[in-house]
Specification:
The protein is an alpha+beta fold and 132 residues long. It has one domain: Nuclear Transport Factor 2, Chain: A, CATH 3.10.450.50. A 6-stranded mixed β-sheet has the order 2-1-6-5-4-3.
Length: 132
């Protein structure tokens, strides 16, 4: 198994256990996180820079949504990139509205095997509506 693919799968295992320090240990200091949800309505939408930004992203996630289903699948590698599909279902805590996101996540690595860029793109309309 490629080291980058293994790292992505380790990150998902950390996410499932709520191990944010474990996720951060696999990221470059200058990492860029981008979530395709609308930042005007969803606190996890938009760009988060550096490890502090990633902490803000996960703090916002933990305080604003309850995940009911999270399933990464269809992992693909191309050089220093790993791409996978995602299904993320949940409930917005402030209003109880459900959402279901289908997206593609792309992970880009530096030569040290650290994630330097993560982007989640796809159909976030359900999440945006649930937060609005």
């Amino acid at each position: 198994m490629n080291n980058n693919l293994s790292t992505v799968q380790q990150i998902y295992a950390c996410f499932g256990q709520g191990d944010i320090p474990g996720i951060l240990s696999r990221l470059a200091d200058n990492v860029r996180f981008f979530n395709g949800a609308d930042p005007a309505v969803a606190p996890i939408g938009g760009t988060f820079n550096g490890k502090d930004g990633v902490v803000q992203f996960f703090t916002a996630m933990g305080s604003s949504i309850q995940t009911t289903h999270f399933e990464p699948s269809n992992f693909r590698e191309d050089g220093n990139k790993v791409t996978n599909d995602i299904r993320h279902d949940g409930i917005v805590l402030s209003n109880g509205k459900p959402f279901s996101v289908r997206a593609s996540f792309q992970w880009v690595f530096n030569d040290k095997g650290e994630v330097v860029d993560w982007s989640g793109t796809g159909d976030f309309s359900s999440m945006n509506s649930a937060f609005a």
